[in-house]
Write a structure and sequence with these properties.
The complex is a heterotrimer of chains A (about 130), B (about 100) and C (about 160).
Chain A (H helix, E strand, L loop, with lengths): L1 H26 L3 H27 L2 H31 L32 H8 L2
Helix pairs in contact in A: 1-2, 2-3
Chain B lengths: L8 H26 L3 H26 L4 H27 L2
Helix pairs in contact in B: 1-2, 2-3
Chain C lengths: L1 H16 L5 H17 L1 H4 L2 H33 L8 E6 L5 H13 L3 E6 L5 E6 L5 H20 L1
The chains are: A mainly alpha (about 130), B mainly alpha (about 100), C mainly alpha (about 160).
């Protein structure tokens, strides 16, 4: 009974967070804020659901497999999100107009050879940054 | 004959969860269709696949078949490779 | 590493001699044998392992807490109108670190509140991070360095 209650709790938490991820992907204004919603809440939502499978069966084989899926999810989904964000930035997706600063724009040259990003163009600025 | 009121809480919650997942998937599909840039669509597709893994997990509970978890592993693996390939393609296409 | 294998072995023995080979028994056995080995430190040695294990456990608990906080904050941002946040892309200078460490740091940053790693400069000295609330960029930068980079490097080295 106790494990059943935990299963229900985890299922509901997972479903609610997945729903928030989907809502965020519709409501957020630009690619990067959307990715924040999708990467964080999506990962936790699906992770909770798989944890619910582990608590429901309570079997060591299923629990090990569920643990592996969760580990895999937590390692790969940020990497996938990071790669899409990078590709989106390179292919010129604009930030939302409400964004405060974009410290990446000066470091990245879009027209020429695409040396993905340099540390800093001005040397005095560089030493100041790294000495912080 | 004894009256057995069998309100099983886990299948009920699982059904509820499946419905929530279905609505979430519809929202993700909206972004998939509307997305202004290709990257937005890829994000939406990634989320749809993550939700599909969640649905498979809930289905494993509902049908009491732990074997279904392996299908979830396969979907997660395939979609990760697919997303990375798509990101590579986007980067390649942006570069002259 | 040798101590970890010993710890796991003792946990397996515990799970076998108790009734029912479940994941809970394995966990109880692991914690119990950890304290057993800690108690027998003068005999078996390996004090580095205990410190590392403690750091890993502390960092994991901290990470799970941060993950939940991050999700609640994202939920708040999703539900409230979008004029409530000020996103920005910030440059965060990094310490010297290997590929694996940089990857793990980027992953941890992506899953913790308000930050999302976008790109790493080609010489691996600056990580570009998209943050949700950039009222004070320098404070955010300092917070990322103090709260996530330093403990992660402590655990991994």
């Amino acid at each position: 009974m106790f494990f059943e209650l935990i299963t229900c709790f985890l299922l509901l938490i997972g479903a609610i967070f997945s729903f928030i991820a989907a809502l965020g992907i519709v409501r957020m204004p630009d690619l990067f804020t959307r990715m924040q919603a999708a990467a964080k809440t999506g990962t936790l939502g699906v992770g909770c659901t798989i944890l619910a499978v582990a608590t429901f069966f309570g079997d060591i084989g299923v629990a090990t497999r569920a643990g592996l899926v969760i580990l895999f999810l937590f390692l790969t989904s940020p990497i996938a999100a990071h790669m899409i964000a990078r590709a989106g930035y390179i292919s010129g997706v604009a930030l939302w107009s409400g964004s405060v600063t974009d410290e990446m724009r000066d470091q990245y040259d879009p027209v020429t050879h695409h040396l993905s990003s340099e540390p800093r163009k001005k040397s005095d600025n560089d030493s100041q940054m790294l000495g912080m | 004959m004894t009256l057995t009121v069998s309100f099983q809480i886990v299948p009920f919650t699982a059904m509820l969860t499946l419905n929530i997942f279905a609505i979430a998937m519809i929202f993700a599909m909206v972004r998939l269709l509307r997305g202004p840039s290709l990257a937005d669509r890829v994000v939406a597709l990634d989320l749809v696949a993550a939700l599909a893994v969640g649905v498979i997990a809930v289905y494993a509970i509902l049908t009491e078949q732990p074997m279904l978890l392996r299908a979830g592993i396969v979907v997660a693996l395939v979609i990760f490779v697919g997303t990375v390939a798509f990101a590579m393609y986007l980067e390649k296409r942006a570069k002259p | 590493m040798r101590m970890f294998v010993a710890n796991l072995f003792l946990a397996l023995i515990w799970a076998m001699i108790t009734e029912g080979f479940t994941i809970g028994q394995l966990g109880v056995g692991f914690v119990g044998s950890y304290f057993l080995l800690w108690f027998l430190r003068p005999l078996v040695g390996g004090s580095v392992y205990f410190l590392k294990m403690w750091q890993v456990v502390t960092f994991s608990i901290f990470f799970i807490k941060e993950l939940i906080v991050a999700n609640l904050r994202i939920a708040y941002h999703v539900i409230t109108p979008s004029s409530f946040f000020k996103p920005a892309v910030l440059a965060v200078p990094l310490e010297e670190m290997s590929d694996l460490e940089a990857t793990l740091l980027a992953n941890v940053l992506t899953l913790t509140p308000g930050s999302f790693s976008v790109d790493l400069s080609s010489d691996r000295r600056v990580l570009y991070v998209h943050v949700m609330d950039a009222d004070d960029p320098d404070a955010v930068r300092q917070q990322i360095k103090d709260q996530y980079e330093k403990p992660l490097l402590e655990v991994l080295r």
